[in-house]
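Reopening: structure tokens for the S-adenosyl-L-homocysteine complex, inputs below.
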Amino acid sequence: MKKKNLKGLTLEELEDFAEELGQPRYRGWQIFSWLYAKGVKRFEEMSDISRNLRGRLAEVATISHLDASSYETSSIDGTTKFLFALSDGLRIESVIIPPDPIDSIGADTGKRLTLCVSTQVGCPLDCKFCATGAMGYTRNLTPGEIVDQVIEAQKHSPRRITNIVYMGMGEPLMNYENVMKSIEILTHRRCLNIGSRHITVSTAGWAVNIRRMADEERKVKLAVSLHTLDNGLRARLMPITRKYPLDILLDAVRYYYQRTRLRPTFEYILFRDLNDTDRDLGQLITLARKIPCKVNIIPFHSIDFMNPSGVAATLRPSTRERMSAFVDALRENHVMVFVRSSAGEDINAACGQLAVKEEASFGEKAGVGVV
Ligand code: SAH
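Re-run output (same inputs, fresh job):
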């Protein structure tokens, strides 16, 4: 009989599992907190469970875990990027992002520590500006693999991880069930106790599941990678636009706001002369009047594509001057706007730079650790 992997099971599933073994349901509670609050890797460590039962558990079940095969800390801003090996040998990355004092004027960021997690190995969406997109898609991560990124990153961090952003490799809303299960586990008070409003799910625009998330009242923050309000340009940059055009996407986002009353964030990478014109500015201002939102301006991080072609070959970051003027104009028009810093750019840990290369250049830069 194949052993059951308990990592990634929700509390209810663990209670059911306990019952199947002829145990009281509260054993599910016990296992839940050992797995997620204490992060144990072996049944032997579950010291409030009898030796007999621990032996039985080891016969019928396993506990998978991730190995942080290495990590790397930016000497400039303290961003830490983890490289995790999955049990089938594939690899993914997660990033701890320290609070940015420049972005956060007025906000209480002193106690905040954010982890950016991956949800897929690679990504099927092929956004033309993104390194993960260029890797292609291999598979979805399991709920256990998503939760384990938090558990393992926490072990290496002296401070408590308080916020999770689903903005690493992959499209979270194409791995809906597993992502939602991971959120259920992470937000549980017996686990890492992360508030659902401290969790942000970022999507390239998988509109149908934005609606589903609203209907299921998940109450997490929604971020949408918008990047332009020109449907034709968006389709060239982000092929998902052909499946969910902008009007369908924005309807879903409005619906999310109406159901949850949580302001969505629109992420907007500034590309020189492509989406940073006055016309683009006007469209963004109009949008912000229609949907209460925040706008996150992201500098474009250039990617070492092997052979950039088509629109990818033309992408350049906007100039600093244009970026400030764009942001100032949004502010003057009462748009709530933030500038995403490029934390971690020196270690390829900034937005859109996550791509696991074979024999990545770990070991060549400052602050490298091998675990
Ligand atoms: N698939 C999800 C989450 C992963 S991408 C999504 O699309 O939202 C996380 C963020 O990084 C997105 O806003 C994405 O558009 C942005 N991003 C991707 N490539 C980038 C690059 N080269 N420079 C800056 N931001 C980038």
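Residues 102-106, 358-371 have pLDDT under 50 and may be disordered. Residues 129-130, 167, 171, 202-204, 225, 267, 269, 298, 300-301, 303, 351-352 surround S-adenosyl-L-homocysteine (CB under 6 Å). Marking as resolved unless the reporter disagrees.
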